[in-house]
Amino acid sequence: MGDDADAAVREQIAYYRARAGEYDRVYDQRADLRALTPLVDELPITGDVLELACGTGQWTGRLAARARSLTAVDASPEALDIARKRTAPAAVEFECADLFSWRPSRRYDTVFFAFWLSHVPPDRLPGFWRTVADALTPGGTAVFVDNGPGEAAAEDVLADHPVPSVRRRLDDGSEYRVVKVFHDPQRLVRDLAARGWTATVRPAGTGFITGTATRPA
């Protein structure tokens, strides 16, 4: 699966770079998605915060309002340009990097990621959670928001692919394969427990999940 996962991740990065100018439209079109972003105010966002896969900054401004400091990482320079403009004048340190090769240079009290966990190929999940653990201070918390199983019906799911994937189309008609794993909350809690995390994952609306995960200090 490794080679196919590598190819899927490369295509996924290309998709989000090409989609940067179109990305925010989905928040204009979907009331349930707009209603989800205020949930950040109810989640345990504290101290020095790291945001993974920040995209165009839809969540970044709310995180900055809660954080002592905020570092935001994404693989798309085009999306980061939009995020910088959206969050100004908030003091956010932006970094452009592929999250599958990026390693944290310091530790944070909170690591946040929205709609990213579902884009991690299954064979890369152990490495991703190790990166999150390396980025957290002892007793720190990972906080995430994502699509749940109910969202699968709205996607063009590609059957019989080695890596769970969906097909996405852009305004110019181009098509991309994007990794998409619709995590079941209970199974995700069990999987995280097997990796040493204590997690709580809850449905949010009909198509989303929110979660927190900690490791023993």
TrEMBL record:
GO biological process, one term: methylation
Keywords: Methyltransferase, Transferase
Ranges where the Methyltransferase domain occurs: 49-140
Top-level division of the source organism's lineage: Bacteria
Keyword Methyltransferase in record: yes
Coiled coil: none
CDD domains: AdoMet_MTases
Gene Ontology terms for molecular function: methyltransferase activity
Xref: Pfam families: Methyltransf_25
The protein's name in its UniProt record: Class I SAM-dependent methyltransferase
Organism from which the protein derives: Actinomadura violacea
